[in-house]
Amino acid sequence: MSDVFQALSSPVRREILALLKEKDMSAGEISEQIDVAKSTLSGHFNVLKSADLVFTVKQGTTITYSLNTSVVEDLMSGLFNLFGKQPQSDKESL
Amino acid sequence: MSDVFQALSSPVRREILALLKEKDMSAGEISEQIDVAKSTLSGHFNVLKSADLVFTVKQGTTITYSLNTSVVEDLMSGLFNLFGKQPQSDKESL
DNA sequence: GCCTTATTTCGTAATTATACGAAATAAGGC
DNA sequence: GCCTTATTTCGTATAATTACGAAATAAGGC
After folding, report:
1. B25 lies in a domain?
2. pTM given for the model
3. How many domains does chain B have?
4. Which among B43, B49, B59, B94 has the fewest CB atoms less than 10 Å away?
């Protein structure tokens, strides 16, 4: 849960996710759209992968990034758990 | 938007919010529940206030913190905007 | 085997975040 | 006016984040 929020706290990473919402893209394609060094982007990709927000498929030398929509649903339910009216059942989710 | 995610990325701050979900609490009451120094908590309160996730009422020498539920709704709609099926209309929200 | 293209890892620097204890501020009761 | 209680600000230390360019790795075409 921390990982997901931490990942989402960067505007650059949210921009990556917004691009991937439209279509799957390679690291190179993403770097054409976002003005930071490729090495920096690569670091952001790692953060997004660790948070399980994206997954990759490697085809030859290009790596295609895709949005992992199921984790977004997990995030939503986590937010409901954090803020919803129901009493907090387990604190592990914090 | 960054502020909110950044605020939510800390487990300590999420624990504060979970406590405030149950009921309004003073800084002192919160510090009885969470094992970090009061000065450290005070810093977390500032982050939460900057993100507009909580608001305060001062009565005498005690300050009561309350959850700002409307910002949670803003967060939800921001997430839908980021991940939802509809094409991204404005990039300002990033 | 060698070049080119795609991407990541490494070394480094600057900024930001998190934590603590001690000192400062603010309000109320006596 | 002085003490007590509640909370914040300050000084400081450490760790994490973000960024860059250069070098390393990986795969494919020739």
Report:
1. yes
2. 0.85
3. 1
4. B59
